[in-house]
Amino acid sequence: MPFDATQMKDWQIAAEAEKNMPTPEEYIDLLGLEKNELIPFGRTPRVDFLKVMERAKDKEDGKYIEVTAITPTPLGEGKTTATMGLMEGLGKRGQNVGGCIRQPSGGPTMNIKGSAAGGGNALLIPMTEFSLGLTGDINDIMNAHNLAMVALNARMQHEYNYDDATLAERGLKRLDIDSKNVEMGWIMDFAAQGLRNMIIGLGGSKDGFLMQSKTGIAVSSELMAILAVAKDLPDLRDRLSKIVVAYNKKGEPVTTADLEVDGAMCAWMRNTINPTLCCTVEHQPCFVHAGPFANIAIGQSSIIADRLGLKLFDYHVTESGFAADIGFEKFWNVKCRLSGLKPNVSVLVATVRALKMHGGGPTVVPGRPIPEEYVKENLGLVEKGCENLVHLINVVKKSGIMPVVCINRFFTDTEAELALVKKVAEQAGARAAVSDHWGSGGEGALELADAVMDACKEEVDFKHLYPLEMPLRQRVDMIAREVYGADGVDWAPVAEEKAKKFEADPFYADFSTMMVKTHLSLTHDPTIKGVPKGWRLPIRDVLVYGGAKFLCPMAGAISLMPGTGSNPAYRRIDVDTQTGQVTGLF
């Protein structure tokens, strides 16, 4: 029987469900693993990626299902909840199903967003471990990333203090790093706005090199992006060596390999290639692997975990960050291109409440009561907001996939509102299913599971939006027009100058185009909802991730270090000192 999600908090549901979650030994049977393919780590073991892939290399892949959503609003769409619910629904249908989601950052978990474990009866467990570090991937990435910064600052200090002869005696050659042109900063896994910009090296000549520096949140690190796209350990090692840490005074890149720190960074990250194994509250297995930013990096769980899941499960469900204009676009044109995998179906998650906001509903302010438009029937707002849903259905269809719309049911939705969304989705050429996984778990997701299984029977003519040979500016223009609905692109002089340089240099020919844009709108302006017309996308700069091999055109300002709000989650998180149970997570 499902838990009463209207009366129990997520952490309480998780605590009850965890009493009967699979043991590592049961996971071996559940996934058909050999004993030496599971790496013990308490209740959250890792799966040995290299061993499983070698044994199962000739096994046919299962069905590949991606989950995305309409444009996010403060009211939420529930992608992770829908991902868990779909897995539970397929499990209720007796299918061999599993999935993969991203690891949550401590910043959102301790702030306003929460841990992204799903919710209600569509929840990932063990919730405490999932929310508080899991098996240490983010910690390993922080250590590897910050080691590169330690190497950079130490090298700058020594080059400042010693002449060339002394450097040579110590086996070093002068890199002549430009302290005003440093690409990397430090990282930590909290939302700490006070560390966005800082001065380091204060003190004497032995206290490091005096310079301006910065701090980003851990999941914004290029190392996290590399983990998401690496195919195996050799690929990870190679990419780590190509990270651009800074530039010298001639404007030439200084890499981690130049600093001779790339091998040690890989040593810190050697275990991160093995996905961590968790499960839903109904005990369908789910990997947790990688957690890169979605609005500046790829925003996907890893290629490694998807390759693994497709060998172990008949249906493998993977989640993309943010809406279809960002998450699905990067899944479609970057992740699938790099992995060579072809999806069978994309699930587009929508809620009645979010559609009402896109239809012109009033602004929602955290901490204040939700306006009555969102809790009472209003077919006019729903119908207008469905323009955003239809636009994103059409985006998915351009890939050759016919999407399934998951109408993530909320208890205030009326039957007329749900029927209207379903009708609009079907008229746009998509399958549609109302799903009550939050309230009823797998039983509430049977309609969704059936729609997905039905869609998986269809042949998919999957194709990328643009060829890899297309120049950068043309790619950006195509994404802006075909995905966002813009009338074109306006390049700032500095951005256009960089783009021309990248287009002329064969070194960047196979770099992926990783758009940087707000997730809260189809446009660059987060305040604009729905499907705006008559606008152009401004590109102000282009960032380079040399190891991940990303060129990142920036539409608007994106901070790599979020801020902590005035009413953060950590105010309500505690530990029961009698049982050790963590309380207050959501």
UniProtKB/TrEMBL annotation:
<comment type="pathway">
    <text>One-carbon metabolism; tetrahydrofolate interconversion.</text>
</comment>
<keyword id="KW-0547">Nucleotide-binding</keyword>
<keyword id="KW-0554">One-carbon metabolism</keyword>
<dbReference type="InterPro" id="IPR027417">
    <property type="entry name" value="P-loop_NTPase"/>
</dbReference>
<comment type="similarity">
    <text>Belongs to the formate--tetrahydrofolate ligase family.</text>
</comment>
<keyword id="KW-0436">Ligase</keyword>
<dbReference type="InterPro" id="IPR020628">
    <property type="entry name" value="Formate_THF_ligase_CS"/>
</dbReference>
<dbReference type="Pfam" id="PF01268">
    <property type="entry name" value="FTHFS"/>
</dbReference>
<protein>
    <recommendedName>
        <fullName>Formate--tetrahydrofolate ligase</fullName>
        <ecNumber>6.3.4.3</ecNumber>
    </recommendedName>
</protein>
<dbReference type="GO" id="GO:0035999">
    <property type="term" value="P:tetrahydrofolate interconversion"/>
</dbReference>
<feature type="binding site">
    <location>
        <begin position="73"/>
        <end position="80"/>
    </location>
    <ligand>
        <name>ATP</name>
    </ligand>
</feature>
<dbReference type="GO" id="GO:0004329">
    <property type="term" value="F:formate-tetrahydrofolate ligase activity"/>
</dbReference>
<dbReference type="GO" id="GO:0005524">
    <property type="term" value="F:ATP binding"/>
</dbReference>
<dbReference type="InterPro" id="IPR000559">
    <property type="entry name" value="Formate_THF_ligase"/>
</dbReference>
<keyword id="KW-0067">ATP-binding</keyword>
